[in-house]
Specification:
Strand content: 15-25%
Helix content: 25-40%
Radius of gyration: 19 Å
Mean pLDDT: 90
Shape: globular
Number of helices: 9
Strand order of the largest sheet: 3-4-5-6-7-8
Structural class: alpha+beta
Low-confidence stretches: 320-324
Order of helices and strands: HHEEHEEHEEEEEHEHEHEEHH
Number of strands: 13
Length: 324
């Protein structure tokens, strides 16, 4: 893609183009660290691990994007040692030419760098990564404009790893923009019945109570918010239910943008939209409820048990369907 063409593209599309390019590079970093055999694991808290891949990928993404877009705010999951530097070979300065061929929605063409916050989860599904459940792992780069998730990139570094033997052909990158659609992934209708995906390793009484009330025909317990939303888009589940404050904004920004771009819906369990401006609380204290289509979201929301609703919504208004 000629430099003049890239320079003429709206900021949002250039930022997403750069995010796709750096996500592809970051996927290779994750695979390279795994192949070395030393993951450099540290414990950040209970059931909360960090690996060298988490740290290196965040440096790769943040450094690469901040050099190209210095006024964009970037918030990453990991707290890193400022004394540790990034290998310059990992810095990406190129743009993905295919992204730049897509027309930016009219309402997003005048976006300025100061309007944007990028939310980065360098390795979503760290626990699964350390256990060899590699298809659960994703890289998430979410783009928010004035507090709303409008674009996102999800990279699966080990996509097809159980079939594809050529390591140079591993992985896939998906991206989407509100008003345009999603690319790199095919939307499929879900199966008959009621299939729910939820956490694999952070279950609790509230989650079990919700699952019992929703009466699913099947439950897919998997790691990573990105992986769960991919299951929704690809028609393997109807809903992603997580009535717990464990998820953070970097977990949901990119998946929300992709899901909304194809007609799905992601909110907290009360149906409230998430905000992604730079000063927002990082924890999604109201949990997460996502559905493969916006039309079925209310059905799931209205069936959240009252005790779960109140626990995640202390001291606030209880909706009408609990008062009769």
């Amino acid at each position: 893609m000629a430099a003049t063409t890239a320079n003429c593209s709206p900021l949002l599309m250039r930022l997403l183009s750069a995010s796709v390019a750096v996500a592809n590079r970051a996927g290779k970093i994750i695979r390279d660290i795994m192949s070395r055999g030393d993951l450099g694991i540290v414990e950040k808290g209970v059931n909360d691990l960090q690996t060298e891949a988490d740290r290196s990928v965040q440096r790769c993404i943040v450094t690469s994007l901040s050099r190209q877009f210095p006024k964009v705010s970037i918030i990453g999951e990991e707290v890193l040692d400022p004394q540790e530097t990034l290998d310059e070979e990992w810095v990406v300065s190129t743009l993905d030419k295919d992204v730049l061929t897509i027309k930016c929605p009219q309402d997003l063409q005048a976006v300025k760098e100061e309007d944007v916050v990028v939310w980065v989860d360098p390795l979503d599904g760290t626990s699964e990564y350390t256990q060899g459940l590699l298809d659960h792992v994703t890289i998430l780069i979410g783009v928010a404009v004035n507090g709303k998730a409008v674009g996102g990139v999800i990279h699966q570094p080990y996509y097809n790893y159980q079939i594809e033997k050529d390591p140079t052909k591993l992985g896939r990158t998906m991206w989407g923009v509100l008003g345009v659609g999603a690319f790199g992934i095919e939307r499929k209708d879900p199966p008959e019945g009621n299939v729910i995906t939820t956490t694999r390793s952070h279950s609790n009484a509230a989650i079990n109570s919700c699952l019992e009330a929703l009466k699913p025909d099947n439950i897919l317990r998997v790691g990573g918010a990105g992986h769960k939303v991919i299951l929704l888009i690809e028609g393997k589940a109807h809903a992603y239910v997580f009535p717990s404050p464990g998820c953070k904004k970097w977990d949901t920004c990119a998946p929300e943008a992709l899901l909304h771009a194809i007609g799905g819906k992601l909110t907290d369990v009360h149906g409230n939209p998430f905000e992604y401006h730079g000063k927002v609380e990082h924890v999604n204290s109201g949990g997460v409820l996502a559905t493969c289509s916006a039309g079925i979201h209310e059905w799931y929301r209205s069936r959240i048990p009252e005790d779960v609703y109140v626990k995640l919504n202390p001291g606030r208004f209880v909706p009408y369907f609990f008062r009769y």
